[in-house]
Input
Amino acid sequence: MLLTADQRELQDLVRRFFADAVPSEYLRKRMISLLRRDEALVQSVKQLGLEEGFGAEGGMFSFAELGIVAEEVGRALFPEPLTERLLGDCVIPGLLEAGARPAYHALGSQTAIAPPSCCSVAAARSKKVSGQVSWAWGVEGADRLVGVVRQKGGDRVFACSLSAPGVTVKSESSLDCSTALSSVSLKDVPVVLFSEDESHKVLDALSILKGCEVYGITSRVVEMSAEYLKAREQFGVPVGAFQAVQQRIANAYAESESLGALCRFAAWSVVSSPEQRPLTARTAIAHAAEVGPGVCEAAIQVHGGIGFTWEYDLHLFLRRAKLIQVGFPCNAGQVDDLLSCARS
Output
């Protein structure tokens, strides 16, 4: 889907900010120092006014614009949980029934989010849960956790305070060197349990945003590859002149752009076509999990030997794409089935 003039302006603003705030050198230093949260960077993000723009009441941006921010998070490998914070702090309250919002707000103002596949949580007693969240985004600096509880009637989203009795948080290492992850143990922890409809909306929104993030990753690695293939020469001609290389990067570009079109449509559907949201959300994240790592691997291959080195940034994008794939796994036939449903 084509962006409007206002959306392009937002995209340019966020992209310029990320380019200045988190260049490759910053990411490298942060990884070496094992810094899990940069308070100065967090405060500089707040000055952009995104929280006010996506606020549940009176915000000037819709969910489609949040998808654009998620794309830029992926392109820049932004190391703070910006997408998760905006979803948990600004979007989720608007997805809840009015009567459920006070209890959700009472848990805190900063949100950590766990993907569904990482939650082994079950109801222990009425409105209390026990179990393990193997990893979640954004626990550092967060007051509440949003995760998924398993029950007979279907998975339901819950929210709990991270300072409640029975909550134990542990920092975890991550395949994605630019992301800080934490595990959370829960024992008889009081929760706000979302309704079935609210749960579907929240999980769909998270799936779409993570799909958009993967699109940002793939678009950036294809861009990097195209620039490299124009400049790198072999036998006196640019590497990009060889047909085999052209075909591989062309296929990667096609997969990336198809993912981008799908994710942008899914983000648009949240507000503008809610009856299509469940299908578009599942399709977007399934397609992202399927093609994201493959596009990154293709980019590494066409770079030759340098693409495999620690000093080059391509493996960092692959790591982020693989982490999202783990959080939202899909089987081989799922994407084709969903795409067939979307076309019909």
User: Anything to note?
Assistant: The chain has three domains: 5-94, 111-195, 198-343. The two ends are 19 Å apart (CA to CA). The mean pLDDT is 90. The domain at 111-195 is CATH 2.40.110.10 (Butyryl-CoA Dehydrogenase, subunit A; domain 2).
